[in-house]
Amino acid sequence: MSESNTSSRNSGPPLKVEAESPNTELERSLGFVEAMAIGTGTMVGAGIFVFPGLAAGQAGPAAMLSFAIGAVIAMLVALPTAELATAMPESGGGYYFISRGLGAFLGSLVGIGQWLGLIFASAFYLMGFAYYLSDVLSVLGMTASLPVQAVAFMTVVVLTGVSITGTKNTGDLQSAIVGLLLVILAGFLGHGLLDALGFFGRETVPESYFPYGIMPVFTTAALVFTSYLGFAQIATVAGEIKDPARNLPRAMIGSVLLVGVLYVLTIFLSTSIVGSEALSGLGETAIVEVARAIFGTVGAAAILTGGLLATLSSANASILSSSRSLFALSRDSLVPDKMREINRKFRTPHIALLLTGVPIAGLILFGQVEVLAEVASLLHLVMYGLMCITLLVMRARQPASYDPDFRCPGSPVLPALGALASFGLIAFMQPLSIGLGFGVLIAAALWHVFYARDVDIVYE
Amino acid sequence: MHTPSSILIDVELPDPSPLPPALVKLVSSLRVVIVGWYEVPEQTSPEQAREQFEDEAGDALQEIATPFEEAGADVTQRLVFTGNVFDTVSRISVEENCDAVYIARPAKQLQNVLVPLRGTHNIEEIMAFVADLLKERETKVTMLHVIEKGESEEKVLSQIIEPARARITDQGIDDAMLSDRLIASDDPADVIIEEAEKYDLVVLGETEPTIRDILFGTVPERIATNSNVPVMVVRHLADEEPAAEATS
């Protein structure tokens, strides 16, 4: 950690400099596989298990293109992010880079945006989880007609409680879940693709590729972009990753590539086998019916199980990252110190976790799945665009302590494209999502002006 | 100049269980690496915990280290905030090039030591450590070998026990302090666990995992988890490591 890298208030005593204590160590206990699992595990919950039906309904078979556009944007952002993360392998992710590169005001905006963006994302994942749970219950013949929102609400209460009491080894669990998912999906896609291409004599559903024209391809890309939010979450735990110079870039870029390919194949398969109109009618859990069409009941059961696990682990990972964002903000005095206090008994940041769990519960009551997803994407896209700009600023300023192990190729063109694409995608969202997203950003700006105006963040 | 053997002793912070004075005395001629670990759940970054608990944890670690320093041991303290204690202890045992790792159990005295010997590949390391540990002490050592199917008693005595005895008496340790036992059984771990109850301390070597080890846990692992006596596991250095690596 560099000593030149500090935050201080102009009034009052300077904060403690973040210098490495000479005789205290911090264990980095996440390897490449765990880092990949955080990224991939967070992403597949949305992209595979919630969006196919919604996306096919909006764009038809061309929803494949929407997912491909998302993958390209995610890749354009992942490359600069990987460079920043190896230059500053600190926990805090995008907030940390932007506050060091572009100053405290944009830092506040992005940090608060990151915290709330992950809250919107968690609410969205939990709604997905609730749809799966309801499906499972109805398959088991328990048609206790609980509204999905009630199920999601109870789940967030439990999940927050579990987080506050502290967990160990859910990382291993997440790696196992991702491994299992990849096996399920590989079997599903492998067989399904041969099937869709006519190897088993199946009649695929013939339909035009762009049934609704070109515009929905972009609006759908904006909607499903939530499927790519996981790669940046790897950066929020950068301080705990072993050999970050090697593992961070590989995990970020690798997880985007992996899920991008999976998504495009999944949509191709779903629209060929079931047809986009039928998919759209099936809503959030459409992919279960695709599995049923290929493998019968066994396939449906496997995908139901996968969906339950994937959406829940996405939510869990996002709650964790969200409370880490508050830690990073609080350490720089942009939010009160209290927010990073650790509970003596459980050794968890209980206040930060409550400040994550309670708003998620509120958003679940609001309950509009597509808006939740878009606001989560919007807040992240603002951060992504600013991260690309941060890279350009760092390259131009050349601070002494800036020495990345991984260098983003194609600068300045590629990061500039990443910034333009990130901001551009926002324009294709629903007006309500755009309004809510900018509302959050304005609230963050006001917070900064009233609470943290005199904080300086220096990176040299 | 012979550098003394080194042992890693790990303690949980901020409320460590006290270590027996007999242990402090026993290892006072060695280099002692005391790892104080403060474990955090996944919800907490180690950094966050350090910020809040570093002072308290550092004081607790110093309190554990002081008796060792006063007894004349060469003490290295390592304070770590970690989400994975196993990773931490194994990483530091390599970094500090420790010959053995101490696995704590309640103990009053450390007068009778059991040294199970299996195979021949790391007897050299085990005996060098035992000799260093017991030099000029009134401690009795029993070497135990479990005879598995197809091994002859004479062969074990001549090829394993005798060389081990010689290795230790060369260091000036009184032959009268040494005894040996041979027990026939197909499950070495069970025999060792049973025998261990009669002693104050077990010193054993790491083993190469066999298939059975992988399924049921390695012998040291099983002994460490199932016995009520403290254990010192002597690390098996890979062959590519230089034998006389300088210790910093």
UniProtKB/TrEMBL annotation, chain A:
Segments of skewed composition (Polar residues): 1-11
Membrane topology per record: Multi-pass membrane protein
Gene Ontology MF, one: transmembrane transporter activity
Pfam family, one: AA_permease_2
Keywords carried by this UniProt record: Cell membrane, Membrane, Transmembrane, Transmembrane helix, Transport
PANTHER family registered for this protein in UniProt: AMINO ACID TRANSPORTER-RELATED, MEMBRANE PROTEIN
Name recorded for this polypeptide: Amino acid transporter
Organism, as annotated: Longibacter salinarum
UniProtKB/TrEMBL annotation, chain B:
Domain UspA, chain residue ranges per copy: 111-235
InterPro entries on file: Universal_stress_UspA, UspA
PANTHER family the UniProt entry points to: STRESS RESPONSE PROTEIN NHAX, USPA DOMAIN PROTEIN
Family per record: Belongs to the universal stress protein A family.
Source superkingdom: Bacteria
Database matches in Pfam families: Usp (PF00582)
SUPFAM superfamilies for this protein: Adenine nucleotide alpha hydrolases-like (SSF52402)
Protein name: Universal stress protein
